[in-house]
Each structure stands twice: as structure tokens, then as C-alpha cells.
Amino acid sequence: MLLEVDGLVKHFPITTGAIVKRAVGQVRAVDGVTLALAAGQTLGLVGETGCGKSTLARCVAGLYPVTAGTVRFDGQDITNLPRRRMRPHRRDIQVIFQDPYGSLNPRRRVGSIIADPLVIHRVMSGEELRRTVQELMERVGLNPEHYNRFPAEFSGGQRQRIGVARALALKPRLIICDEPVSALDVSIQAQILNLLKDLQDDFGLTYLFIAHDLSVVRHISDRIAVMYLGKIVELAEADELYEAPRHPYTAALLSATAVADPDEAERRQRVILTGDVPSPIDPPPGCRFHPRCPKAQQVCAEREPELERKQHLVACHFPVAAGEDLTAGRPA
Amino acid sequence: MSLLEVTDLRVSFPTSDGVVQAVRGLSFTIGRGRTLAIVGESGSGKTVSTQAVLGLTPGADISGTALFEGVDLLKLDAEQLRRVRGAEISVVFQDPLTSLHPLYKVGWQIEELIRVHQPEVTRAAARRRAVELLGLVGIPRPDRRVDDYPHQFSGGMRQRAMIAMALALNPKLIVADEPTTALDATVQAQILELIGRVQAEFDIALLLITHDLGVVAGIADEVLVMYAGLVVERADRRTLYYRPHHPYTKGLLESLPGSTGDRGGRLRPIPGSPPSLIAVPGGCAFHPRCPYAMPVCLAERPPLAPVTGGGPGHASACWLPHEAVGLGAAAEELRTRAKEDA
């Protein structure tokens, strides 16, 4: 396994007081996540706003110190390494961010933005650096002659290509894609998804791919993990997850996804969940999904279901059976 | 008579780089209680066109007509337009956090809207109406939440509150501009269901502006596809999704993950990017990105013409033969042959 995450916990303290800070609570953003990712594979991570998917990604990339648990990369424990010792691993793990406007410095030329990782890690300089950057630009579908332009002269899709080129510069092994196409129009989104796929084939890249758009995640992922309130509730092969979801939350999420097919939209029985996602400061006891779950029973409020150790992992006391109708509502 | 009839709407913005031609001759009608969706990517002019009709584009040069129940909205002064907006036509924007005032209670903002348009309503009656509206849109315990500030609401609840405000004065038309784009999938499903329910209950027409072909597939009666400030295709939703004529519509549908039925396979994106609206390509604006572009496409702009054999009202602005509809192999052959013959 290239990446192994075991029991990862990330809590953010809530503090009060202007000078002497006193912790008054914890935002339990990631609360015990275990997953593994094999080299050359893509693991999709889906979930709604606030489920902790981006926090998890940042912990894996070493951008946040973790509260508990371990992150192993290529067999080595890289959890909370001091800066200096983390440095060699940073070359192997790169991130592509969502916002192609906010993640590029508007005052710097594109060539120097893409060259940054190579300069910081003292990999090369001078003419060799310039040639490498131009090769990277060509590889991601940018005109290498635009080396001296500023980010503002590029469209949203081209900017995301710049972000991809920068992530590729150090020949990483794992790329964390945090909503890389969410800000793009659908015709441009397809261009970037094709590019990511081609790069994976050419360089044997491993992706941790985060998105809230389920059709995008299904397209690109081998396996998919579904997160809810800091926990993974289900993890399975992409097609299996879509065709036979076992966790009621996954089933609800899939049925809520809008499909670009009028007949399918009419046929579809939507599982409309009641209420909103509870606060991660004070998550519900037992199964975190139980207050909104159409299948919840007494035990769900009392005991937290474990993620089973099987091929298709689901954390639920009453998983959805094949063909089960969830739209009927909760049993009396 | 249709409720809103927009004819040859043109909107442009003078800038220091040149004139941005955001809308270049848009016509559409929407009937009472109907749902019309305008679909397009960033910069297609879908938002600007409706904002221009509602007088929300200061600094723009606007021409054309927009008849709402026979009255041309583009000829009204600011005060007259304000009376229409809110009371007859209400708007739901994408981002409910910037549409609600952060320093006033949600209920107060609804009361104020009612009292501005209907000064005879007492404050107590307006408050009762606000509570009733919040309950109608599914806010739990509306009698208490009416005294919350917007930041105390979740994203979905804020959008529900916006819909409550939109309903407050019994409008005939709701313009919803990307109403669910900022929301998560499960909340989006709740809001779309709510919009559909109130629309049917109060017989309100809905003008839905979105980039999301999934949202449109579920609720639109009729769909307009916009590209570079023009309608390129108009059809009922089944015709649009199953028998599209314009290569841009076809390209949008084929760009969607899952459209090829082959997970992990290559998607078929539209090459290139949308044109600059300062220097729109001559002829058909889509020709630089179109795989079937013929000499005529560079020379002459295709009119929005009825597609014979399509659904009722199916029209497309494209020089390809009428029979070339759909996503199948037969249509593909017709398109390729037309290109070769030309």
C-alpha cells in the first residue's frame, strides 16, 4: 500500500478569550478514519460540506498536524514529522486545489509559479529549469510560449492546468486532488478529467480525489469512500457503491443526485432526508447518521457501528438490502 | 397571452477594453405556471439577460422589449420597476448569505418586504405572515426561528428563507438564478422539491437559470441553451436531452461524466474555451469549437429556426440538416456527411 491512514483524528479546539486562550470545545472534523490506497489507484472521497473530507486530505498531505492516529506513506510513518524531516516526503505528495483563481499568485509569471517546487527543493536551475517548465506546460496542454504571462491572462480551465503542472513538477507519487474541477464549466471539466486520467496512465500516479459531485467521482475512481460527520460510513469499489449502496446515507446521497436524463429523473425515488447535518462540535451519540436515518432503531442511538473489515465496508447496524425501498420512512 | 415575452433583447457593457456584448438578441416567452430553464456556461449571458429585464444591470446598454402582462419592463422607471420586482416578479439568487442582510433578523426582513409593498398591513399581521411563510418552506419551529439572524441558519435553511421571501407577496413569476448551486446534493434535492411544490400550489411561473443539466432534467417544461449571448437551441426537456440538434447542446451532454456509459473511459469534452464577448467570432459564434463547422458557418449567422420532426417548439440555430438530431450513430453520419459535402 502506498498510503495507509489508521485511526486518524483531527480536532480543532474552539477557544475563547483575546489574550489568554482557553479551549471551550472541539470541532471533531475527522474522528477516527482508517483507509488504504494502493499505488496507481484512485480513491474517491465524497461527502457533503463539513464532513471532514478536505481536512482529512490536508492531514495526509502534512499540511495540518494530526490529533491522533497515523499516516504511513510507502511504509514509513510520516505522522507529525518536524518540518525538516517532512521535506523529502513533500516531493512525493502534491496537492491540486479547487480554486484556480485563489491558488495562483496573481503577481507572478506562470513560468515561475510552475518552477517554484523545483526551485524550493533545489532540483535544478537556469536553462534546464526553463526547459523543464516548458515541457510541463506542454504536457498539460498549455502553450509553452506563454511562459511569461500572468495568471490573469488565462481562463479558469487553463489556470487549473497550471495548478496541475505545478503539482507534477517534482514527479510526485501521490497527488491529492481537492475538488479540482468543481469551479469549472462542464465542457472544461471534461477536458481536465481527461488530462488527469492521461497523466495517471503515463506516470503511474496515485490519486486521492475529493469531490462532492458523485458522477465525477464515479468516473475517475477505482474505489470510493463516503464520509459523514468525520467518519467513513461506507467504502467500496466504485461501481458496486453506485449500484448497490449499503449505507442508508450513501443511498440517500445517490438518490438525491440530479441526473441529466429526464426519464431517469422521473423514475427515480428520492430518499429525502429530514433536517440538516448536525454540528461536528457535538455529534450525535451512537451512529452519527441516526437522527436523519430512515432505518434508525434504538441501538443506533446507543452504539456506534464499526466499519466492517470486508471488501465492501459499511458502518451501519441495518444496512440497505438489495432493492430495498427507503422512501417509505422509519418503522414504527 | 404569455406572462413574460422578451423580444430581441440586447445587453452590452462599455468597458475600457471595448464593448462587451453580453446578450446579442435574445427572445423567449414564458406562460403562466410554466417552468422555463435557461442553461449555459459562464459568460453565456443567461444571468445578465434576466437581470437586465429586472433593471439590475446599472451601466448597461439595453435594447429590445420585455412585456410582462403586456407592460414593457424596459420602459419603466426605477420606482415603477421596484413595485413590480418583489410583488409581481421575485428573485432567488445563488448565494443566500449575501442576499440576506446579516444584521437584521430573518423574520424582520420578510416583514419589511411585505410592509414596503403593502403599507396597509400591520406589523403584527406581517409577522404572522412571516411565521406562516417560514413554516410553509419547511423551517422547523418557525415561531422561534423567525427571530434568528441569518448566520444562525444553515445554508439550506437560508435558501428556504429566500424562497419564503420570494413567496411573500404572491408573485406570478419567480426568477431563480442558480438556486441550488451552493448547496449539497441532499439539500439541493430538498430545495428543488420545495420549489416544485410551491410552484404547483400557487400556480407560479418559474424562470430557472442554471449551468447544471441535472437540475434542469428534473423540472423544466422548456429549455433554452445559450452560447455567447444567443439562444442556440430551444426544446422541451425530453427533446433536448434525447434528440438535441445543435452541436453545442450535444457537446454539453457528452461532456458529462457517465454520458459515455464507460466508467474511467475518456470523456468527449468540447475543445477550446468560450469566446471573448468583446470580439465574438463572426458567423456562428460556436464555429471555432465545432467539429462540424462548414464554410457557411464562418460566413453567416444561422437563425434560430424550427427543427422539423423535433418536439413541439424545437428550434436550433445551426446550419446542419434538420434530420441530424440525437446522439446516435445515424445522426452522427448525417452531420459528418453534411460537413464533407460542404
What is the 3D form of chain A?
Answer: globular
Contiguous helical run count of chain B:
13
Distance between the termini of chain A: 45 Å
- Which protein chains are joined by the largest interface, and how many residues does each one contribute? A-B, 45 and 46 residues
Tell me the strand percentage band of chain B. Answer: 15-25%
Shape of chain B: globular
Strands of chain A, total number:
11
Q: What profile does the largest beta sheet of chain B have?
A: 8 strands, mixed
Overall pLDDT confidence of chain B? 90
Strand content of chain A: 15-25%
* Number of DSSP-assigned strands of chain B: 12
Percent helix range of chain A: 25-40%
Describe this structure in words.
The complex is a heterodimer of chains A (332) and B (342). Chain A is α/β, with parallel strands linked by helices and 332 residues long. Chain A has 11 helices and 11 strands. Helices cover 32% and strands 22% of the residues of chain A. Chain A has a 7-stranded mixed beta sheet with strand order 6-7-8-3-9-10-11, sandwiched between helices. Chain A has a 4-stranded antiparallel beta sheet with strand order 2-1-4-5. Chain B starts with a strand and ends with a helix. The chains are: A alpha/beta (332), B alpha/beta (342). The interface between A and B is large, with 45 and 46 residues.
SSE topology sketch:
The complex is a heterodimer of chains A (332) and B (342).
Chain A: E1 3-16, E2 22-37, E3 42-46, H1 53-60, E4 68-73, E5 76-77, H2 83-90, E6 93-96, H3 110-120, H4 126-139, H5 156-168, E7 174-178, H6 186-203, E8 206-210, H7 214-220, E9 223-228, E10 231-237, H8 238-243, H9 248-256, H10 262-267, H11 298-302, E11 313-314
Parallel strand pairs in A: 3-8, 3-9, 6-7, 7-8
Antiparallel strand pairs in A: 1-2, 1-4, 4-5, 9-10, 10-11
Helix pairs in contact in A: 3-4, 3-5, 4-5, 5-6
Chain B: E1 4-15, E2 18-30, E3 35-39, H1 46-53, E4 61-68, E5 71-72, H2 78-87, E6 89-92, H3 96-99, H4 106-117, H5 123-136, H6 142-145, H7 155-167, E7 173-177, H8 185-202, E8 205-210, H9 213-219, E9 222-227, E10 230-236, H10 237-242, H11 247-255, H12 295-299, E11 305-306, E12 315-316, H13 329-341
Parallel strand pairs in B: 3-8, 3-9, 6-7, 7-8
Antiparallel strand pairs in B: 1-2, 1-4, 4-5, 9-10, 10-12, 11-12
